[in-house]
Amino acid sequence: MKIGSTRIEVVIADVKAKIATVIYLPGTRLPSVRAAAKNHSFSPSTVVEAYERLQADGVIYSRPGAGFYVAESTLPLSLADIAPKLDRAVDPLWVSRQSLETSDNALKPGCGWLPPDWLYEEGMRRGLRSVAKGSASVMSEYATPLGLLELRQLLTRRMVGLGINAEPSQVMLTESGTQAIDLICRFLLTPGDTVVVDDPCYFNFHALLKAHRVKVVGVPYTSTGPDVDVFAAVLDEHKPRLYITNAAIHNPTGATLSPATAYKVLQLAQSAGLYIIEDDIFADFEITPATRLAALDGLSQVFYIGSFSKTLSASLRCGYIAAPTAWVESLLDLKIATGFGGGQLAAAVVLSALTDSGYRKHMNAMHLRLAKARSQTLPRLAKLGIVPCLLPQAGMFLWCQLPDGNNAAELANACLAKGVLLAPGNVFSQAQNAEHFMRFNVAQASDARIYEVLAESLD
Amino acid sequence: MKIGSTRIEVVIADVKAKIATVIYLPGTRLPSVRAAAKNHSFSPSTVVEAYERLQADGVIYSRPGAGFYVAESTLPLSLADIAPKLDRAVDPLWVSRQSLETSDNALKPGCGWLPPDWLYEEGMRRGLRSVAKGSASVMSEYATPLGLLELRQLLTRRMVGLGINAEPSQVMLTESGTQAIDLICRFLLTPGDTVVVDDPCYFNFHALLKAHRVKVVGVPYTSTGPDVDVFAAVLDEHKPRLYITNAAIHNPTGATLSPATAYKVLQLAQSAGLYIIEDDIFADFEITPATRLAALDGLSQVFYIGSFSKTLSASLRCGYIAAPTAWVESLLDLKIATGFGGGQLAAAVVLSALTDSGYRKHMNAMHLRLAKARSQTLPRLAKLGIVPCLLPQAGMFLWCQLPDGNNAAELANACLAKGVLLAPGNVFSQAQNAEHFMRFNVAQASDARIYEVLAESLD
């Protein structure tokens, strides 16, 4: 090895070591060639050569006239890097980003929420006006650590209707349903733990769990809940710490947990010491309440969470956790440490809108409107050979199989190019075996253009 | 060893192993004596004895008639357990909890925010009314991932006044200033990293960093910023990843970063590849703007954050990050994964209140009001021998030395018993060497009862 080559490698090793020990972070500008040469007492040409090799390896990149920078891909907590890269069309974060970024007028049958004019706009306006006239404290002050008492009391009364007995002191308000889940995960999980999810499941669970750097194992979801035999085998083999699932109307399948499955799942969880997050954000869409794990369990190992973004407003951020009593204090400490106090304002608007007599009427009208949208969407999809795996009792989703020979990710890419955002099966699937499935939101599926684009793009 | 004793130890070891491997979490109910006896094929009396020994050791506890439960203290992410336990009076979380939990009428000169009637109530009411009449989209929909464009544009214009040049595409709205810091920490830090803070510093930084399980090193804060020599030595010795500091009016000291110190700190940080979070939540209290690290650095290694909870309302949750361009995309992914979309509503109310012509008048009046409160508080404290370490140019805090022979934590405990919440020095101090100091909030210090209680309690 020539001396020149050794010196170049010294510079390369030095840069790589600083990246590995996170002294240089992605986006860090490297010392200038002149400065690095001086530091090492090498010639500038040695440094130029070293930087060029690092650049060729993708470790750094240059900006003309501005120097060299550490490349993004070395990011320690790039969510994209923790798990293998997926096709953008089946990357859960990409679907979230697309849904959030596309304009109101875009066609997005793959979107996970209702169009704004389906939400409780009038109740929200009334709630805002009432808060605008209300107490200075609600207007200006931090909430107590648990959050607005009146809303927590209301939530416990609503839970009673689902068979869940919680004290207001067990209910903690959060900034959103997602933040509620994240907070519990921060509390329960350490990197390397194993978490069970349904396969398919709400795709943001995958993104969230990546951020926690845990191992994720999927259990096939049937029309009555998770496959109990697989669930038992997974507990045996993987000793998971946590199971995250949707209550009531399952996302994306629209299936309903049966009492027998709920009972078996809970029995297995209890004997394995497995904790459960039961995410019940679609509760108010139900017509007949299904069994809740939190009801059977009595909030002993189940954390029950909810929010109002699917029915009242996604613009007003407010979620909640009903937690086992023993955990409340520690969750509160974590909430304060990572977000400080909550506000009273969002909670007060939610309280006003939920207690207002119009809310029940609004939801009754919503049930009918969704049933109608479902019955209109089904034949339009059927004409294209797209068939639901089951007929949901309620909610906005249809989990459908594509006609033979069609790949959901390819179809989603083709349709996106024509302005239609779809939600291909594999964004929901841990095992990545849902490539022939697609989730449709019937409330976002009325425009005839969607079916034209689908027809053009299907094989 | 008797066989009986061995069997007891088998049961004990089994329970302890399940706790250690987090199969049993705190609050988990242990199998009943009968069930455990059956599992192990031991007699019930063996299990009873094992459970009693575990209980005597504090590993489990019993609830009469309800069985045995794993004790709280074995909690994996109990913030209290990650660092050594402090006297409750100097536990940062305890001061936060007390401040958030005490009623509006309590005397809390230790509180970190203004009384509600000092905030911009009229602007908030106007903002809420205007949103209540505004677009359905603001009322109902998720914001785009970065958050409301008009507010981000306004924030960049405000930053220009401080010499910080940021594009609206570098500004990301968050649920609060604390959440902004937490998000950056999640992104930058892994457990075991080292973080530098000012000593003293805002006490919630300690709580937040505990939740990230990092090593924290303090650098003494002088009247012009951190002690530069110690700062340099800390970078050398500990190779920290991040420095978190307050911009402008330092909490708790009220000191102002000088241009010379800012320059040196930034130079040291840049050559060490150290990232900085500059928390500027007190910006609008300044009369003459001090130097910002983010301005000198050009948002290359500095993350600049702010919120509106100290001036507009703590009830409306909205904060922001101005981040180095290279980091924005990954921060957005993390924000979506852990909190999904933000709302438009809080941002719209903030936008309305800040652009409303009354805000500047409100803040001008606030400056005068604070100056008056400061001039009234100083002689009242001086009469008790409590002397500020420096006279702040602005803001609400006075960082004071107690008369000889007084310990701040003891004084805080004594005063709390008499209904006065204080903020003793050591809640702010990493080195725990501020036992003779106390932070007073002049806006919360007008009541004569405070000085009576202090006089009674001082040695």
From TrEMBL, chains A, B:
The keyword Cell division does not apply. Residues 5-73 form the HTH gntR-type domain. InterPro entries: Aminotransferase_I/II_large (IPR004839), HTH_trans_reg/aminotransferase (IPR051446), PyrdxlP-dep_Trfase (IPR015424), PyrdxlP-dep_Trfase_major (IPR015421), PyrdxlP-dep_Trfase_small (IPR015422), Tscrpt_reg_HTH_GntR (IPR000524), WH-like_DNA-bd_sf (IPR036388), WH_DNA-bd_sf (IPR036390). It holds the Pfam family GntR. Keywords: DNA-binding, Pyridoxal phosphate, Transcription, Transcription regulation. The keyword Transcription regulation applies. It comes from the Bacteria. In the C-terminal section; belongs to the class-I pyridoxal-phosphate-dependent aminotransferase family. This is GntR family transcriptional regulator.
